[in-house]
């Protein structure tokens, strides 16, 4: 969609823009949800060289993206190396960014670094969200660091659309067909997953990722096991995954301990064995994804795999599976949902989630994919 002349008096003149830096310093899912920004920019202005700046541990969400020239990273572990080493890494990063001579900077979070980089790199244009509390508390230094500010909708708006609002504010109107998530697993990841699936004789399966780094987003282990048992009883093969964190691995072992069936490679446990790129390659081959509100759910959506996702305190309007057939299961009995709190009273346990009925989840799977249960 083209910008209508005269509608935006201060639209960016892309004739004066060659290099762009997009900053997204958040968690994995947040970074993946920024991926359409690069696609839309490149589609509308093919001459652009577009770079990203993210935390080092989230880089796999954007590496191999066909519209990104380079993914620069900040390693949060630098702080553990001592002040001298941290400054050495920071100076090296700054030298890389300054050498690029960016014309446009797009800052997609409220992180202070975006404002400081905008002042240091001096792009012709810079854009970030207009957050009244942020502008009020940080004063003129923040407000004057950017040439454009875009408003955040007060009603529910998916995070992807909020990211794309940064482009709308500077005169780039995304088309409907170009707003999908972009995630490229890569040949190495795809080959390894094909090998693992072949070893277990699996060609048609349902992918279950029952864990999250955030405990308040997790369902009860016995209930996850009951869903797996139902899937197996109906003739499905199930592949289970989890991050290589001890807490998540223990959770998977507890779940599998409750599972009654699942012999002869009917339930395959790949927890702790996959990189994020390999997780993407795995879920791309699945018939259905079942999991929590977490980055694997967003990865499944990026790969076009139908999703059944459980939501507790989080708002699915903001964070739900994006542009893929899906069902969200969330409590209808708790008027406080979604509260945005890390468990009831901050206790890391969300009753709105743990009390969800197994039958509701199985029904969602059946509605989404009738042959699955």
Descriptive account of the structure:
Strand 10, helix 11 and strand 11 form a beta-alpha-beta unit. 38% of the residues lie in helices and 15% in strands. It has a six-stranded parallel sheet with strand order 3-2-1-4-5-6, sandwiched between helices. A six-stranded parallel sheet has the order 9-8-7-10-11-12, with helices on both faces. The protein has helices at residues 28-32, 35-44, 83-100, 112-121, 132-143, 159-169, 187-199, 221-233, 246-258, 276-284, 295-302, 316-319, 351-354, 358-368; strands at residues 19-23, 49-55, 70-74, 104-107, 125-130, 148-151, 206-209, 238-240, 267-269, 288-292, 307-311, 326-330. The mean pLDDT is 93. The relative contact order is 0.11. The protein has two domains: 14-178, Glycogen Phosphorylase B (Rossmann fold); 188-372, Rossmann fold (3-Layer(aba) Sandwich), CATH 3.40.50.
Structure summarized in a few sentences:
This protein has 373 residues and is of the alpha/beta class. It contains 14 helices and 12 strands. A 6-stranded parallel beta sheet has the order 3-2-1-4-5-6, with helices on both faces. A 6-stranded parallel beta sheet has the order 9-8-7-10-11-12, with helices on both faces.
Present the secondary structure layout.
Elements (H helix, E strand, L loop, with lengths): L18 E5 L4 H5 L2 H10 L4 E7 L14 E5 L8 H18 L3 E4 L4 H10 L3 E6 L1 H12 L4 E4 L7 H11 L17 H13 L6 E4 L11 H13 L4 E3 L5 H13 L8 E3 L6 H9 L3 E5 L2 H8 L4 E5 L4 H4 L6 E5 L20 H4 L3 H11 L5
Parallel strand pairs: 1-2, 1-4, 2-3, 4-5, 5-6, 7-8, 7-10, 8-9, 10-11, 11-12
Helix pairs in contact: 2-6, 7-10, 8-9, 8-14, 10-11
